[in-house]
Every structure is written in C-alpha cells, then in structure tokens.
Amino acid sequence: MWTFSNPVKVQFGVDVIDSIGDIIAGCPYCLVTYDEPFFADISQRIARLAGAPALTINNISPNPDFITLRSSCKQLQESTSQPTLIVAVGGGSVIDAAKVLSSGGNGFDPVQSFLETGNNVGELTTIPLIAVPTTAGTGSEVTSWATVWDTEGNRKHSLARPELYPSHAVVDPNLMCGMPRTLTVNTGLDALSHALESIWNKNSNPVSTNFAVNAANEILEWLPKLADDLTNITLRERIARAALFAGFAFSNTKTALAHSLSYPITLQHDIPHGLACSFSLAMVMRSVTGFSESCDEGLRRIFGQDLEAGADRLEEFLVNLGVSVNKAEYGVSDEEWRSMIDAALAGERGRNFIGSRDRVYEVFG
Predict the structure, then answer these.
(1) CATH of the domain at 281
(2) Both 149 and 244 in a single domain?
(3) What's the rounded Cα separation, in Å, for the pair 329 and 276?
C-alpha cells in the first residue's frame, strides 16, 4: 500500500509571474525577499501587478538562522498593516524563512520552542503562502517544511507542519536567468540529491519514483549544458521543471543519508548545501545497489542496467561540474567522517535510508 499527496497549485512557464496579481487578488500581503537589486526589480514588478505590499521583509540571509528569523518575525508581529498573505520571492532560504514567518505571527519564541521541544503548536500561526522561486533546486515551493539553522547552538532543525505547504507555486524560469554559474550548479545538484534520495528511501512510492526518475534524467543531461549557457531560457526551463519534479518526489518521502551527512558539513565547514549533499551521492548509490529491487529498478531507469557503472557515471558527472568527491577537500578528517556517518545514520533523515549500516561503512571507508 502507498499514498501520494501534494496540495500545491503550480503555475509554470516563462513570464507566468504576470499571473501573480490574480493570485494575490487584492489581499494585503507581506513580501519576503533578499535585499539585493535583482530582487528589488522583481518586487517592483509584483507591486505593479498586485499593488504595493503591506509589509516588506528583506533581511533574509542564506541558511536562515535563529538570529535573523527572530528579527524577521518581530517585524511581522509588530506590523500595523496586518498582512493576510505572504509572498516569498527568492531561493530556498527565502521560502524557508517565509514558512517560519507563516508560523511566527506571534513572534519567534513559539517557533523556537516548537523546533526544540515539539511544544506550543497552539501558539503557531498559519498565514497562507505563495512561493515564487528564483532558483531551481530546493523544491521548497512544494514541500511542507523549512530548514532552520541554530548557528550558535551548532544545530539544524526542520520546521515541519502540513499547514506550511504553499497555496501556490509560481515557477517562472525567466526569473532564474540572472543566476550565476556557481549558484545554478549548486542548486541543480541539490535537486539531483532530492531526486535520488527519494528513490533509496523507505517512504518511496511509484508516484514519487516517477517524479524522481524524470528529474534525475533531466538534470544529468541538461545541467552541464546550462552551466555553460546560463542565459539559455530553454535549458533554464528544463532544469526548473526537473527541480520542481524532484520537489514533488521528496515532498512525500523526505530526504535520506546524503542530506543527513550534509548538515554538519555545512554547519562546521561552511560548505554550500548543494555541494554538501551531493558530493557523497555516488558513494551512497554504491552502498545501496542490490539492496532493494524497487530501488534498483528506479536507478536503472536513470543509469542503465549496470548500476556499478552508473555510480561511476554519477561520480564523473559531479567531477566534470567541478565537485570534488573527496571529503578531505571539504576539510573533513577521517575521524570526523566516521563520526558524521554514525550521526547521519542515526538522524531523522538517515533513518529514511533503505541501505545497511555495514555496507555504508564498507563503501564510505
């Protein structure tokens, strides 16, 4: 038995951002975005289409943490304009921060308490959210959780509530044409990780696997071409759709071992998320091959019948994009690596992984 569910209404295509006025429909909205000229231009476009925002929160930084999110929630809580809708324009960090704001209408304290203890859910708010992603990678526009970082406590949290699914995802590949190569590659690798991690996953199902296979095939074929042709709107559209499909896949499965490994690498070594969660993908694939027929079947639809050769192809793909598959190049020692593997396998995401501990240790070294 299996189920698949995703309530987000997706509008996809070049210049689909022009539909935002009809979606907002005159509601007083809080615009959440980055304080950068590129996003100011998009914000002005939205204001022309939907009217000026009742409130703008633009103090968002990559990997949103307790400190900045507390300030953001305070702005929302103290606002006299009382927005009834949140519009998030940006990458995964902006959309994740907007989900915290959706929950944090009463301030950040209830959110922090919920993250740390699971308590105070009754004090959380649920402000409807429209997600307008400007990168192709995180899939946050179609998931019901947000990654929240406690940098002072050296911890990563997941804010997970069914109410956090955006009501709409407005995915316009044209908004992604200004993204530089490094960000394009890193976010594309994050999407590839979402796709593969949803296949070697205890929560996988035929629908999620179909989304994942499509996404992975598209990314493997087209991301290297996009990396060399950043203004090609056709390639942007393909990768944006692939990232969206990967988002649908892991919206039902969550991630697994590679993501669980990535969090301390990002926290402790300041490695961007897309790199941190993708450099181990070939190792994870080698460790899980032959463990589950349904997983192998999904992987064969991507890599062909010889999965050992497929793992080599995956590693070559990463290296050709400039991604080292050597942990030492990320500043991780052998001793730290063993500790990270233990913690990753024991973590919530690691427990989604279908493979065996012994095989992981055999492959990972």
Answers:
(1) 1.20.1090.10
(2) no
(3) 11
Reduced 3-state DSSP string for 198-221: HHCECCCCHHHHHHHHHHHHHHHH
Report residue 85: phi and psi, to 5°: -150, 145
* Burial of 337 (C-beta count, 10 Å sphere; 0-12/13-18/19+): middle
Of 96, 87, 68, 72, the closest CA to residue 26 belongs to: 87
How would residue 141 be classed by pLDDT, with cut points 50, 70 and 90?
A: very high
CA dihedral for 262, 267, 271, 273, sign (positive or negative): positive
Q: What tokens appear for 49 in the block?
A: 């289409």
Any idea what the Cα angle at residue 141 is, between residues 140 and 146, rounded to 5°?
35
What pLDDT is stored for residue 52 in this prediction?
A: 98
Task: Give the separation between CA 256 and CA 327, rounded to whole angstroms.
Answer: 18
Asked whether residue 335 is assigned to any structural domain, the reply reads yes
d(CA 194, CA 206): 16
CA–CA separation, 316 and 84 (whole Å): 48
- Least Cα distance to 85 among 32, 130, 25, 29 occurs for 29
Domain shared by 161 and 193, yes or no: no
Between the CA atoms of 209, 297, 315 and 239, what dihedral angle is there, to the nearest 10 degrees?
-30
The total of structural domains in the chain comes to 2
Q: CA 30, 33, 34, 38: dihedral to nearest 10 degrees?
A: -110
- CA dihedral of 323, 325, 330, 332, whole degrees rounded to 10: 170
**C-alpha distances out from residue 297 to 129, 171, 203, 255, 289, Å:** 37, 30, 16, 19, 10
CA 338 to chain centre: 26
**Predicted pLDDT at 300:** 98
Q: Supply the DSSP symbol for 59.
A: B
Q: What pLDDT is attached to residue 365?
A: 75
**Does residue 64 register a pLDDT over 90?**
yes
Expressed in angstroms, the distance from the first to the final Cα of the chain is: 36
How do residues 18-41 score in pLDDT, each as one tens digit? 999 999 999 999 999 999 999 999
Whether 160 and 205 map to the same domain: the answer is no
DSSP 8: P
